[in-house]
Each structure stands twice: as structure tokens, then as C-alpha cells.
Design brief:
Blueprint lengths: L1 H36 L11 H14 L5 H12 L4 H22 L5 H13 L3 H10 L5 H12 L4 H10 L5 H16 L4 H11 L5 H8 L10
Length: 226
Amino acid sequence: MMRPLLRSTRFLAAAGALAVVVVVTAAAQDRQGRQVRNDPRLERLDAEARPLVAGVIDSARAAGLPTEPLVQRALEGATKGAPDTLIVSAVRRLAADLGGARAALGAGATPPELEAGAAALRAGAGPAVLAQLRRSRRQTITVPLAVLTDLVASGVPVDSAAAAVLALASARDADLIDFRRAVERDIALGAAPSAATAAGAAAAGVFGADALHVNAGARPARPGRP
């Protein structure tokens, strides 16, 4: 009779411990939700936009996505005097892009990588590019993603920018930044974006200019969305 009683006692103790964990976890999530809703920075939003933005942020937090970029996107819209509908739409799109970046980069991606990945996706890079870059580089890929986005913003075709960054994936962050600066400098001096990228890649000893020119015509740069 003692053994069944002992097993029952252990079961009740384990069940009690699990209940405590569930209650503590729920309390922590509720506290985080209240922190989002009560974030004083969101008071800058109109009464109609505030709960909608807070809902997006709550959902992103529950999904394990970084929420500070969402707050900053909402505040940016408020500072610019954007309509409520545009602010909410922009926050939702960013949340979707952050989710897309994590799907491409994996669950272990850091918040800076997810932010940079979301920006690259919005610039026109496909999820396959992000995934390939992850496989090609052991260290953080925040800088390569940012360089890719900056190149596209400078007028470099998306495929050309992606090809260059992937070819330079093993380079140091400082070298990638130097490459981006060289391309931007040549563009400012009048060179065509694709030619400037090819010249910069050739100077870095990655591959010949002809290879990049062929890739450059594959897809034009896509203007960024609001």
C-alpha cells in the first residue's frame, strides 16, 4: 500500500510544480503584454492606432520576434504625421518581414540579423538569398545583409548586389563596408551602379567584372516600400 501512495504523492508534487511553472509563465507573458500596452512611447499615437499597434507588438513578442523595431516604426510614422491607417499597415508589414527573415535565417537568428534580414527582404532580396548567406558565413550576417540593402538603395540591381555580397560572404565586416563605400563612391562619380559593383568586386578579387554584369541584368532594383 505504501508504493501506490508514494507514486501518488510524487505525481501530485510534479503536477503542482508544473502548475506553478504555468502560472509563472502566464504571469510573465501577461506582464510583458501590459508593458507593451503601457509603453509611454505609444502615447504619441492617436487613440485609434495605439491599440492596433500594441496588438501587433504583442503578437510579435509572443512569436519571439524583436519588438523594438516595431515600436520605432510606429513612432517614425507619428513623427512624420502619417495617417493612422498607414502607421498600422507599416507596423504590420514590418512584423511580417521580421517573421519572413526568421523563416529564412532560422530560429537562432539574432534580433540585429532579423532586422537586417527584414530590410533586405523589403529591398527585394528573396528568402533564398538570406538562407544562402546564412549557410555561407559562420559569424553574424548583420553587416552583409545591411551592405546588400545599401547597395540596392544606391541603385544596384538586386541580383547583382546579392551576387556580390554572397561572393564576399567570407570577408571581414570591415572589408564588406569598404566594398560598399567603393561602390557608392564610384556611383557618385558617375559610374553605372552595376558597373561600379562589378569593378568593386573585381578589385576585391572575387570574380571578374563580366560575371557580375551578366547577373546585373537579371532583375532590377526594387524601390523600397513605406
